[in-house]
Structures are given as structure tokens and as C-alpha cells.
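Fold it.
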Amino acid sequence: MPKNSNIYAVIMAGGGGTRLWPLSRRESPKQALRLIGDESLFQTTVKRLEGFFSLENILVVTVAEQAAMLQEQMPELPKENFLIEPAPRGTASVVGFAAAVLHHRNPEAIMALFPADHFIRNRDLFYHLLRKAVKTAQDDYLVTLGITPTFPATGYGYIQRGEKLPESSNTYPIYHVKRFKEKPGKKEAYEMSVRGGYSWNSGMFIWRTQTILSEIERQMPALKAVLDEISAALASPELDSVINKVWLDLESETIDYGIMENAAKVAVLPASGLDWSDVGSWDSLFDVVLPNDVEGNILINGNHIAEDTQDTLVYGNDDKRLVVTIGVEDLVIVDSGDVLLVAKRDQAQDVRKIVARLKNENKKEYL
């Protein structure tokens, strides 16, 4: 499919990335970090999307304190394509804000939503799936790309597949969504991962702006009222003041809970073979970064000597500071300069608990 003026990408890039603490901080959010190669996660996402969308049709939703940093990383993106949230209010408000802006620009717009921190190795398949998803979205479906579960993850939402759409192919069929289950417990996650007929919710969605705005009006009327006020001011010099006035009263809600669980017409396109990873935690890097040695150890940005060490990730502050490990395995070691994190690999996501403690103890210098 050639690049189409009616098809837009929206990148969600305003998160704090607490699971990648202590490297991901207020001054250096995860999407701006160079964790995989020489480019940041945000730059990698934009360049992946540029293979399908024109740069003029790639929008970014972020918060004010991150906008200048992201604009500096991707100066090719038009400045007016950076949409600024006054404060985070969940992904439902992000979706609504972007949909309202795009619908004002182009009432025929089809919007594809992507997190800024995903890794996708198979770009050709990614583009193929996007073409199928766009075609399905034209029939007023809310389309999501589903990932085949590889373990009983409790940090992902699950999508149960229903009947296959009659017009879909056998190679990559598209299904009606029977139900969404957001972040299940361990037992239910295990059952869904081995039973078949379920996909992980990738957080990548494709829909017409009119379709998603209609669902927001039906299910989240308070958000729709705010979006209507913003839409009425989009061509006005008072836009910023209107957004600041109405935004902070919004309740925080995700698109999954707020819309997708009870949406009327939802389809899932299982995306097996994408080689996808949500780079949201230190342990997820084991899925996307090649080991430095035969023992499965990973070194990023540092100097590491390993003795009797297996399956351990070391992120160094600089090449001058040497990290030595002896007789350890399955660890994550992160030296950010002012913080040294040492964690078991299977507990690395619990750094969120440390971030919460630091907030409660008002230790802002570490956040």
C-alpha cells in the first residue's frame, strides 16, 4: 500500500517508564533512552513507522517536560505534530486527544496507535499486517494487533478470539473479539496462555477517528465533552488555555478499561512472527539484545568482567567504571551513576515498588 494521506500514526510517548528505573527518570524517560543500538526507542519507533506512513502523518502525544527532548531527537517531524498533554491522564485521554485533532484535520482519517517503546524485528510482516488492519478499520472495526502468548504473563492484557471475519485470509485471519481480560492473575494467565484462542494485547490499535470518537461518546461521555471543547478551539489562539482549563479535571483511565472491554465492534489480527517485545522492563531486554558471550550475559554501555556468570544483564554508567561479577546468574545490574540496582531477573519489574517508596519518602533526587 502506498503512503496514504488519510492514514496517520500516533505515537504515545509520555510515559515515565518506572520499570526501567533507575535509568528511566523524569529527566530521561525510557522512550528517549538508547537501550538497543545507537538510537533511542522513540527514534526507532518513528523510523519503523516511516516505512509505512509519511512523516507529515506521524503524530506524537507527550507531556510538556518531554516534548523538547523528543523534538530534538526527531527534528524531521513537524512541530505541530507534537500534541502536548498538560498532565498524564491515561491512554484513553491520549487516544481521544489525538483522534479529535486528526478528525479536525481530516474527517476521513484512519488512526493507528503505537507505544513508543516497542521492538519489532520483522518490519515487512509489520507493514503487511498494517495493510490488513487498515482495510478492516475502514469497515468501522476497532482493530488491535494480538501477540501469541509465550508464557503466562500477568502484566499484559489478553484478548479472546471469537469467530473469524468472513473476508479475512487463512494466512493471517482476523477475528471478532469475544472479550478483553486486562492483567489477569497467575492462574488465569496460565490457563489462557496454554488453552489457545487468546492473544496478548499489544497496545497497537487501528481505527477510523469517527469510530473511536463515537465509542468515547457512548462509553466515556465526560471525556467526549472535554474533547468537544478542545475541538472547538483547535483553530483558535486560545487553544492552549482551553486545554489547560479542561484537561486537569479528567479522571485517569486506560483505553483498555475505558473503551475496549465494552466496545461494540472489535477485531483482533493475530500477529505471530513479528518478533515483538514490549521493552518496558529490564528483563525484557533479554528478548531483544544479543548476548555478549556464550554464557548469555548482556552488557550495555559499560565495562564488565564476568567470572562464572550466566544470564546476567549489566548496564554500565560509562566505560571507565568496571563492573565485576563472580559466581552469579539471572541478575540485572544497573549503574546509573547515583543509583546501583541489583535484582534477580524474575523480580526486575518490582523496581516499580522502589519508585513508589521513593515518592512516598519524598526522595525526588532519585526519581
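The first helix runs from residue 41 to 49.
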